[in-house]
Amino acid sequence: MGKLLNRRKGHSDEDYEDELDEDEDELDEDEDDEDEDEDDEDDDEDEEDDEEDRREYRHKRRVRNQIIAYSVVFVVFLAFVTGGIILGSKAASAWKEKKQAEELVKQQEEAEEQEVEEIVIDTPEPAVEENEEDYFEELVENSIADMPLEDKIAGLFIVTPEAITGVTTATQAGDGTQEALNKYPVGGLIYFGQNILNEEQIKDMLSTTKSMSNYRIFLAVDEEGGSVSRVANSSVEVTKVDSMAAIGEGGDPAEAQEGGATIGAYLSNLGFNLDFAPVADVVPEGGSSVLDDRSFGSDPVAAGEMVSNFVTGLEGTGVSSCLKHFPGLGEATEDTHETRAEITKTLDEMRASDFVPFQAGIEAGADFVMVSHVAVPEVDTNGLPSSLSEKVITDILRNELGFEGVIITDALNMKAITDYYPTEEAAVMAIEAGADMLLMPDDYNKAYEALLAAVQDGTISEERINDSLRRIYRVKCEEERRGL
Fold it and tell me: Which residues are designated catalytic?
């Protein structure tokens, strides 16, 4: 442009053309430069486009890589979660199976316990038994709770009806019996052949006497079978039972049980509730004995079987049995009815023979044991009659043999007692030795007064008397429990 201006200010045409050519060349160069610039710009734009493409590519690649990475992480996470779920499921399943197994074991244990409980339920329930026993013991306690001391003392005696009425022979119960029982409410009365005339008479006498007594009363008799059978040997018609010796010789214990049941049946029918039988003494083999045919024999074990079965038969009818004559009268050569009697056996010898039938009878459920007047110096070194010996009654019969029933003396009017001890002294000694009841003292009034005085002055405690009365009334109240 400067050159053009120069031309316009006076330069020549040639100069102008030269200048113009130069200008055109310059313009061409400028255009070329512009083209180059444009090319450069285009190249720059292309480079920019390429860079943008590269950035976009890199961005897309990063995005893709991120997506891939996230996908991998997600897959790994998903796999981890899935694995966790599977493991958790397996663990839960294992835990569930364990719980089910534990529950099954528990159910099995409960089932076993239930089976045990059901077995126990099949037997009589202890609670019911306990309630029945509680009621029974309450009945016993109530029977003696309000008794005056005088009546308690009278309740320890079993005597003949003549001993309290004063008549020569008692064959009926009338006003005299009522008056006597009011004054002396004895624990029991014993009857002999002289008191038994016929079935109607003895039935009426016993039932009337029972109704007149202010307390439950024993109505007793000696009915062994054979020669000692007060009822069977009277005019009353009953089925007679062989002697114990005959039954023993037969060797069949079932016959002994049948004999006891037969005797018990007719005694119960007449109104008796206590039989002083069976004889549990063992007699010497082939030797003589004051018992004659009243023993089952000389073999202690065989005799024990007979005694046990007789007791079972008799007690099954509701009549109480009484084993006699402890500790064993079989080898005595003297009769205690007439004089003092003694046997020389040691305690171990008696354990091996004489005690065996008594133990069998006790285990069979005998309510009474009668203690004889025989002396056993090897057992009681004082030489006391067994009926007055604490060693025999308490140490051996009560403690060693474990008898919990009623211990009664043999008749205290026998000469083995009366020739050596006053009636009063014998009564007190027998109770102190452990006897519960006194049978037929020589003088009932003296024996009664002496025993009453011994309690009143503290020689014997009233609780000791109560202990005996509890044993007595457990037997008496048993009749009520059986509905007799």
Answer: 337, 410
